[in-house]
Amino acid sequence: MHAPVGGDHLNRAEHFRQALEELGPTFVKLGQILSTRPDLIPADFITELEKLQDSVTPTPWEQIEAELETQYGQPLEQVFARIDHSPLGSASLAQVHAAELLDGSQVVIKVQRPDITKTIDADMDILFDMAQVAQRSKWGTLFNPREVVAEFARTLRNELDYHQEGLNIERFQNQFATDKQLIIPDVYWEYSGKTVLVMKRLVGIKIDDFDGLEQAGFDRHDVAGLAARIVAEEVMANGFFHADPHPGNFFVTPLNGQSTRPQPVIGLMDFGMVGYISDNDRLTIIQAYSLAMRDDTQGIVDLMLRVGAVSTTDDLESLERDLNRMLHTYRGLPLKHIQAGPLVNELMQMAFRYHIKLPADMWLLFKTVAMMEGLAQRLDPEFNVFAEFAPHAKRILLEQRMPWVWGATFLDDLQSLIYTARDIPSVGKSILRSFQRGEFPLAFSMGLNKETLNRLDRITTRLSLSLLATAFILGLAILLPVAQASKVAAVLVSIGFAVALVLGLWLAWSILRPGK
């Protein structure tokens, strides 16, 4: 692909996108991954990289046929009754062909392009060499390009492993086994391998075929709500989500063959790109959402510090000001007026400005939600994705307060504490042996001038009196049961109370005294 006429007037982001297209499939995939990483590249580059299309000229059928026969080790006529030579889709890594098995089952065959693995291996060597050089630059010290390339390599390898994609499909089937409004295609494992994936063919109307949906009697608002609900449940209930919700992967069909005002059912395709969100990351997102609803920017910054998204060396005051400014933009607005797309774009710009570090899958999630909103709003301009996610967020926050949720963690922590307590006697013996040998096992540095010694003396005195007051209180607790039957005990208890009160008041006064 060559730059169009007038290419000299392109900006840096446009030149970068065109360069990736010229370099081939590996670099197109890299650009698509980078478009989900606002912590690495600025917003104008992300906007441009979103234009990268994973669609290329189809590989001639003769080459695909040879690849399939190598996979099966026999002529295709002995495996399939029919295969369409014209592909249903052609991407940089694979092609998809419609076919029919010998038993009449209608399927699609996803087959890798010949020699694509060799091409990617050579490209990855180049990328690792470039990352090694970039690692020594100022940019490299901030963003660790070697780790970025290693993460990209893992993502690309997973997308090339069709056995893993088949496992992804079965995991989604298990998660939505009781959902009658979602269809996940079956995998024909006996015909599939690492480079070929055979699945049941889904038949329906593409979700962006608006005329087709209306002619079939579907309510576009219902379709938008169903698509968003599926993504919300993937993320909020399961933490495992389809990360490529573009229109070509969604088919709409009526529930149980309904024809009049049909209830929509969505068939979902292409599970090569998926995301994983841990329970902790999911709770972090919900906590941030809850803090944002309360306009607590300090709480958001503290949360970011706690999860390691920012460090104490960053400009936290400026970050808090920018967060407050962003929240002020949305403050008081009804939920229906807040859109995920613009909000995600603002977060992406802030992430680059302050080097906010979040797990790659979390950025992928934000991108997925924004894509889902864009698709849903094309179906229904009034649709709001936050309204779909809000009930799930409230449910999870409520669940976190339930004893059967935090109880298990509490018991684990308590068990760890017990194990630690068991080590105290052996540690104490070790310290005592060190003292017996004339050694002091705790090394620290302190300026022992007269003022420091005086302070240590006062601290020791307060500690001793605190222990003495504690002993009085414990003694009183022991004497209380017999104080009612003995006048002597009653007098001792009264004296003890007086002494404990005096000691307590003196300790409080000495602690609160200014400069002491």
Structure, explained:
By secondary structure, the protein is an alpha+beta fold. It folds into four domains: 7-54 and 118-155, no CATH class; 207-401, no CATH class; 403-438; 449-516. It is 59% helix and 9% strand. It is built from 19 helices and eleven strands. It has helices spanning 12-23, 25-34, 43-49, 61-72, 116-134, 138-143, 145-160, 162-175, 210-215, 220-238, 279-293, 297-306, 316-330, 340-354, 360-379, 385-400, 403-436, 450-483, 487-512; strands spanning 80-83, 89-90, 94-101, 106-112, 182-183, 196-200, 205-206, 240-242, 250-254, 264-268, 274-276. Strands 1, 2, 3, 4 and 6 form a five-stranded antiparallel β-sheet that branches. Strands 5-10-9-7 form a four-stranded mixed β-sheet. The model is unreliable at 1-7 (pLDDT under 50).
Proportion of strand residues: 5-15%
Q: What's the helix count?
A: 19
SSE sequence, one letter per element:
HHHHEEEEHHHHEEEHHEEEEHHHHHHHHH
Radius of gyration: 33 Å
Secondary-structure-derived class:
alpha+beta
| Low-confidence sequence ranges | 1-7
Q: What overall form do the CA principal axes indicate?
A: elongated
Number of domains: 4
| Quaternary structure state of the chains depicted | single chain
Distance from N terminus to C terminus (CA atoms, Å) equals 77 Å
**Proportion of helical residues:** 55-70%
**Main beta sheet:** 5 strands, antiparallel
Mean pLDDT across every amino acid position: 79
Overall number of strands: 11
